[in-house]
Amino acid sequence: MKKLDEILNANPNRRSEYTLERMMELIEPRDRDELILALGNLVHSGRIQKLIRVVSRRGQGGIGDFDSIEQVPSEMLDSRTGVNVEVTPDDLQFIYVVPAQHDHR
Amino acid sequence: MTIAELKAELDRIRADLILIPTRKRYKWLKKEIATLPPECRDFIFQFFTATEVIIRDDLNVKTSTKQIATGLVCIAVGTVLAFCFRDPTGIQYLFLRGFFVLGVSGIAVGILVGTVNLKWSFTKSLVVTATGGFAILILFYFANPPPPPSAVPKQTQTIPTNTVNSR
Question: ipTM value of the model?
């Protein structure tokens, strides 16, 4: 997981966000589950943060970020299309956030 | 599946998961997730790895036991052969060293899974980079190797002292 460490230290002054797929592309791990577990450990240790993003089906982008699944509404306004949409599990993305170093202080 | 159903599913899984020892959670969770719709499996797995302590030890324990056992067998074979052939020929020496090195690297891999990295520069253009067991194998094979046995049998090398004195 040396590559993972490199990614975490790549932009120390900037907040970075990664989906699992992006992490897979960057790290190319032997085992997908191992990477997910490693990321989970980093979340537990406080090195990275997690957020749940609702993605617009038409607009191809995030329309809302939430700290926990309980906060995700069943319906919300898609700001990219201006239409109220029903949120389904397909619209959810798990995002790993590498905070800027000054955010830790 | 709706968001409400997903939340209910997460609550149900969490209620059972927290009762399971951390080392057994991975297997249990994977089984549980396998029964859910494929489109939400990754999300649920990511969710629980980030919110609950889950340790995966199913693979490591099995492979390390196998590796240590194989390593011990190789060392045992190498040791037995080393005492069977007191004056090994070049090819016998090569195989003996091979057995010993395989044995040591097998055991080392079992104990130090993925923790050893080696970068060996033979020349400017030839650099060997190795990780884990292969690194240990290279390290043992090339670092401080014992001198190979002489190609000429020992008896022919010794000159009787009385012959030298008589000259």
Answer: 0.86
